[in-house]
Amino acid sequence: MADARPRLGFSRIQGTPEAVELPAPPSDRPIAEDYLPTALNELDLDSLLVAPATTGVQQECVLLIEDSEEAMLLVRYSLQAYGDGRYRLKWVESLSEGLVQLSKGGVDIVLLDLGLPDSSGPSGLASIREAAPEVPTLVLTGDTREETEFAAAAWGVDDYLVKDQVSGAELVHVVRTLIDTRRMQKRRTATDDRLMR
């Protein structure tokens, strides 16, 4: 029986009063780059490019390192639809730009694609972990190979999601869980340090 869960902009996009139905990608090959724009044509792109209005909620910064604008729009859509105004998306298109943003501080989580202009595969994770070991890192990729996931785990990634195997709601749930878990770890460490003085 086929898995009927909604996917992140590939077979179904949710979050509007009436969910937009999209055609399923071909089953005999990986999702092509030109499939994403087809899905995005069903959305109001202008609304996705405008940050949601804040209502006094302290927003957490999600740094997306991803060279595809279409994928960025889908991530932003998911954060807006399911994030309850909690998240602010910062988007860069290369690993080097991501490292610059991390050096400035204020990032609560990194969403990292593994196929970037200046970095390919899990090796880019090493640079991310070295630059900001305290910031959780979530790989969001189209690479379905198990060896890539194992390599990412070896480099210390906090979680690993395949783009066409996750819904927008699932993505936001993982983001929230990783941020909250890391925050609790920091508080526990700070408490332990005080007790040891």
Describe this entry's structure for a reader.
It is a single chain. The protein has one domain: 3-Layer(aba) Sandwich (Rossmann fold). It is of the alpha/beta class. The strands form 3 sheets. The protein has a 5-stranded parallel β-sheet with strand order 4-3-5-8-9, sandwiched between helices. The chain has a two-stranded antiparallel sheet with strand order 1-2. The longest helix has 29 residues, at 168-196. It has 7 helices and 9 strands, in the order ββααβαβαβββαβαβα. It has helices at 35-40, 45-48, 69-82, 95-104, 124-131, 146-154, 168-196, and strands at 12-13, 20-21, 60-65, 87-92, 109-112, 115-116, 119-120, 137-141, 159-162. Helix 4 packs parallel to helix 5 (124-131).
Keywords:
alpha/beta, Rossmann fold, 5-stranded parallel β-sheet, disordered N terminus
Number of domains: 1
Q: Would you identify the regions where 5 or more consecutive residues have pLDDT less than 50?
A: 1-42
Structural class call reads alpha/beta
User: Strand order across the biggest sheet?
Assistant: 4-3-5-8-9
Largest sheet: 5 strands, parallel
How many whole angstroms does the radius of gyration measure? 17 Å
Total helical elements: 7
- The global form is globular
Indicate the mean pLDDT.
Answer: 75
Question: What would you call the quaternary organization?
Answer: single chain
CATH superfamily membership, which one? Response regulator
Order of helices and strands: EEHHEHEHEEEHEHEH
CATH architecture classification = 3-Layer(aba) Sandwich
Helix content: 40-55%
Number of strands: 9
In brief, what are we looking at here?
The protein is an alpha/beta fold and 197 residues long.
